[in-house]
Amino acid sequence: MNPAPTPFALPHFWADLKSPDFARIDAAATIAVLPVAAIEQHGPHLPLSVDTDLVNGVIAHCLPHLNNVPVLFLPTQSIGRSIEHIAFPGTLTLGAATLIQSWVDLGECVARTGIKKLVLLNAHGGNVSTLDIVGRELRARFGLTVLMVNTFSLPLPAEVKQLFGPDEERFGVHGGDVETSMMLALHPHKVDMGLAQNFHSSSQDRAQSYAILGNGSSAKLAWAAQDLHAAGAAGNAAAATAEKGLAVLQASGQALARLLHEVQQLAALG
């Protein structure tokens, strides 16, 4: 019978461990989190780093609420699948096959340590379909219990949602009030509010004109960013404030911590 690992202060970031430390962690109890994001245009007022900055910001606001949950955050994967933004200079994107292989490879590395639970923490909508494939590959090939989590889908309390309203929640999907507010709270020097505007999305027009096609659930348009607005953004960025952004970050960080507490209690799949 193998002796129990010697307890030690587990850091929250994978890269902060030394290689011999992995022999000392309680792998069966540890949760690995792989943050994935993007480097892509977010309209004229925001930097390419938005999705990467936001996932890192949510993690930072999660840490104070983790208590004793053993979580290891792997290095954030900054470049994702951003083909819908390639009409705009500066956008970086990888092919779906490349991403699937690289994220599966990272999951295999996690599995080799004996860790059984992996959370794929995503901050970019364009990564969702790729992550679905990755999650099932990792489950089937390496026996990992994998959860796909989007930062933009974490539950927010009503008082935070009310800061933006239902139209912004539904249509402000890229560089709008929410993301601009979060960036103002995290990195205000990166935001040019002089170029922020109400980027009216074509999705709003479809919602008014088509009962089924525009209802947001029955049909999914394979859009490119310029299809929503010529500036490559969607939502009322002009209404953004740092105070609203901080409220979202705090609520999202708390929600992520609660989720990780639940993942800790979840029995690993056999």
Automatic annotation (TrEMBL):
Pfam families: Creatininase
GO molecular function term, any single one: hydrolase activity, acting on carbon-nitrogen (but not peptide) bonds, in linear amides
Keywords: Hydrolase, Metal-binding, Zinc
InterPro entries (alphabetical): Creatininase-like_sf, Creatininase/forma_Hydrolase
Gene3D superfamilies: Creatininase (3.40.50.10310)
Organism domain of life: Bacteria
Cofactor(s) named in the record: Zn(2+)
GO biological process: riboflavin biosynthetic process
Membrane-crossing residue ranges in chain numbering: none
Membership in a protein family: Belongs to the creatininase superfamily.
Protein name: Creatininase
Organism in which the protein naturally occurs: Polaromonas eurypsychrophila
